[in-house]
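$ ./design --mode recover --in tokens.txt
reading tokens...
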């Protein structure tokens, strides 16, 4: 699960960024026209954590429907959660993805994107945008984006990497946590994961600061 999740998150960041085009821009055009912009920003800021976090928050996450993603990941268990629990789950899920996004951005910046144009989508409100990520080494990775047209434009609600769904992968993990500890158990597990990642981030920052000081005094 972790492998597919990491790839899905990584490649999502390359494709989905706000543009100046109107909301009625077709989803494949939106993906295609913004890919190079995002890649360019990544290449210029691979070592700048603040810049990467800003990229995630302002240019990527607005194009994801986290409410629907959380609902799909929860499956039948969504109805077991109270409104407050549903909000907590969505927020913690979003935080988890943000952390994973910016780490992936720092590592991968030499990929190119090939988008398959959509045909005859007039009137459609739910489409799949097919892409391939061309790696510098290795075979292309097929990535499909399930997108829904909303009043705020096209939004991604699932990412399928090499036939494996991000949402379905999480559904199994979420279901397991709920069976063992209920909805609150899942919320606590997500919170613990986020706190663990936060601690690791701080540790890495401290190590980098120490190395930087050593380099200056050498």
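writing sequence...
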């Amino acid at each position: 699960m972790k492998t597919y999740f990491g790839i899905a998150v990584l490649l999502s960041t390359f494709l989905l960024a706000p543009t100046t085009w109107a909301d009625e821009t077709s989803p494949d055009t939106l993906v295609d026209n913004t890919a190079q912009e995002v890649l360019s920003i990544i290449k210029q800021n691979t070592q700048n954590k603040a810049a990467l976090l800003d990229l995630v928050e302002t240019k990527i996450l607005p194009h994801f429907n986290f409410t629907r993603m959380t609902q799909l990941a929860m499956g039948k268990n969504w109805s077991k959660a109270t409104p407050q629990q549903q909000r907590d789950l969505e927020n913690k899920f979003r935080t988890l993805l943000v952390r994973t996004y910016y780490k992936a951005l720092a590592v991968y910046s030499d990929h190119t994107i090939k988008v398959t144009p959509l045909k005859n989508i007039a009137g459609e409100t739910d489409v799949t945008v097919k892409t391939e990520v061309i790696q510098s080494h290795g075979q292309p990775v097929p990535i499909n984006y399930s997108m829904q047209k909303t009043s705020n434009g096209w939004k991604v609600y699932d990412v399928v990497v090499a036939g494996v769904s991000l949402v379905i992968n999480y559904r199994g993990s979420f279901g397991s946590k709920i069976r063992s500890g209920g909805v609150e158990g899942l919320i606590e597990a997500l919170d613990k994961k986020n706190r663990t990642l936060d601690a690791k981030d701080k540790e890495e920052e401290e190590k980098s600061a120490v190395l930087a000081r050593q380099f200056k005094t050498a």
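exit 0
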